[in-house]
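Hi all, a correction to my earlier message: I attached the wrong file for Drug resistance transporter, EmrB/QacA subfamily. Here's the right sequence:
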Amino acid sequence: MHGSMPPAGFTASETGTTASEKRQALLVLICTSAPSFMLQLDANIVSVSLPAIGHSLNASFAGIEWVITAYMLSFASFLMPAGALADRFGRKRLLIIGLSIFTFASLLCGAAPDLPVLIAARALQGAGAAMQLSSALATLSHAFQGEARARAFAFWGSVVGIGITSGPVVGGLITQAFGWEWAFYVNLPIGIALIALIVKVIQTSRDPGAVRLDLPGVASFSGALFLTTLALIEGNHRGWTDRWIVAELLGALVLFGLFIIAERQQARPMLDLSYFRKPTYLGANLAQLSFSAGMLTMLTFIPIFLQNGLGNPSAVAGLMMLPMVIPLFIVPRIVSAHLAYRLSGRALLTIGLFLVCFGLFWFAAVVRELSYASMIGGMLLTGTGAGFLNGETTKVGMTVIPKERSGMASGVSGTVRFSGLVIGIAAFGAVLYSGVADSVRRALPDANTSDALKLVQDITAGQLAGTTLPGHDVAAVHTLAAASFASGYQWLFVAGGVFMLLSTLLTWRLVRAAETPPVPATLKGQPT
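and the right structure:
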């Protein structure tokens, strides 16, 4: 089941394996990919359901934000420790525990009578999500080796793509037909079925060298990532010079310093910093961070533009995203079936990053037209680039790490991916705000400062139709609001494109083609 496991799709006559072994391999793929699908689907469903949750629980917008924030903080804080726990106590055990916690927390979320209970349940759900993601990726990396691993991560990337694709549509349908509670209850049957399957299918694996838990590392890293995530989430609202934000960032810096000191003194550290001396590993994690910050954040920003900038309802906006999200499902399969035999991991990563970069510059060139048709080309480019990256970033990063440390590697991969998402939303959100503010300031140089600030905040939040400014014609203010909104998005897309261009160049420079060779040509043409 480990290094000898056959790649999915091979016939018994071609590999000497039996139909039973092929079936076992497919079941392992399902057990390790489905938890990631659940996380992606759940994140998108809950985001769509937030307005209904706020109305049902009589909560303010600031309060409802904590439904997302509590989950993000818990998830970020536990990802790396969860990888260490998986190596120490067994990946199968942590996968079952994490999935059980996530499923039980989903029940609590759906049954929550008020906002505080829902927020607490979401924090618990985030901890379970971190455990199941780290242990699932570690199990996948351990169970498949060589060319089989490339196919396995392509399968994983396709499944995650399905979650991204279906999340907004499924979320809207569930909330409208059954109520927001079912955005959480939908996890129950899936979670229970997966737990039963994992118990039967997955073999136990762990790192034999992990004889004790790195408690100083766990405590310092979790605390540092918690404070960093909290500061990034609140920074755009409170202001980056706010004393609490400054204190959180300084506290995170101190804890990161203590974490590095603690890891240098550990015989078996939670995070082996020596791996970051490997250029390929460093480049793969840079690509992972860039993919998340520069591409996955756009799955949040662009639907807002389609709804508020182009005036489409949420259901229509979800369908408009299909040119961008469908390639996330299709392209990993194409890469695995045809390109993985010809191109190195280095080439695949840089092609993916450059396509996303090109797509973002396309958006920047056409966004002021406020036309959906002109955006389709950019959607196809970014979606195709994301399809190259979705499984490849994780696979390349884990290629240069010994399989007994796959729990640590998966924890790093998940943490980098999530951190990129939080950093991207905070950074590009600030760019969007600055772009809107610059446009308003140029158009209304003599406007009252407080009135102009309120106008900028309304435009950035997407409240274009209801914007007003004392002493100005309503129609003219609405026209200004639309133009400023588009200008802010142009700033955002330009910043994203420049960021992805730099990431493309650095990834090509760091990742070694010799360490990420193409899949052996003898396997060319076999189905995935």
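Sorry for the mix-up. The chain has three domains: 1-203, 215-265, 279-528.
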